Here is the input.
Amino acid sequence: MDTLSESTRHSDGGSVKAPMIGNTFAALRHRSFRLYWSGQCVSLIGTWMQSTAQAWLILKLTDSAYLLGLVSSIRFIPTLALSLFTGVIIDRISKRNLILLTQTTLMVLAFGLGALIQLGLVRYWHVLAMSALVGVAESIDGPARQAFVKDMTDGTDLMNAVALNSAIFNLARMLGPALAGLVIGKAGFAPCFFLNGASFLAVIAGLMLVPASKPARPETHRKMLDDLAEGLAYVRSTPAISTVIMLVFGMSLFLLNPAVLVPAFAERVLHQEATGYGLLMSAMGVGAVMGAVALAAHSVRGLQARLILWAAFCWSGLLILLGFTQVYMASAIVLALVGWAQITFNAAANTWVQMNSPDRMRGRIMSAYMLVHNGVVPFGSLLTGWLAQNHGANIAAIVLGMLALTFAILVAFKRTSIWSVPAGTSMP
Here is the structure.
């Protein structure tokens, strides 16, 4: 059915009447997901405002694309070091309570950096240190939130929920950078950080109304390393998961770098200031929102892995095309298409891995996914910053796009059987 007038689903522990919701918004029939999603609608705008302001602040403090890349790298290093261990914790305790803790921590850090800026005390090393602390919180928060989506939807409408999360993430990417550019121009950097801190209150309030999830694996008598080894062995022995995670590794390494590449491209190729840079980031958000909504509407048809592969090819090719653009409007259009391809790839890959994961190991498997999705970003950011600093942002885009495209082709030919089967299908 395309719509439900009454829902007898028990995703929150009881029957809930749901509004008439079409396929595009099917996951919103679940009360817990509605509450969480509504809070995220506010919080993510603040997150993108801070991310945009921080990147521009670093360029103004240092005039160095490499040091900008270093900050991005520091933020993701904790994910590289801690992600697999946090997956074991996620499987053992309440995901909701864990997310409440991490979101509160991120709120405090946003207010703290904003205060340093407001008082005129901020230095580059402050931003570097705060990024490391944010990275520690996000190494737990990321996989916990990914695994919590299935709990909130009771396993139904999972692809739709992931796509809707991607839609608001990228709607925030569209609005947040533009608002940040305006706020920076009118009131400076500090208000962007204060507004982000305040925005966390929305998601915290939503989570407080969501019932605490029960641990998927409450037994704690096993050693953490034994649980970790079990999760990694499952990933390695399941081609449907390991192949897609390998593709995610390559795309994240070479392409998941807009916080480094776009500001350098805006300033040094297109000769823009904060407002022009913010609008370029917003253009990526526009394309990503359109891609996420299209994927949400498509979710009722199921998911095949070839969508992930084609999105990887398109994402790589569009970054190469960006490197050849010299006109602001052309760059904005290409970045919008980059946003579309990126979100299609990320949402489809995330859904595919979750739909092929057993509940009792979901936290560990999603931690492995987040490890390659975010954990390799430090290396990609450093490579991007080095290329942009020494060879120009346009050359950096071309080289990174070519590396990603080559990687995707190699993965595609390594295991050809996966690309034509639906999610959840057993494979040899």
Summary: The chain has a mean pLDDT of 82. The CA atoms of residues 99 and 141 lie 6 Å apart. The chain is about 75% helix and 0% strand.
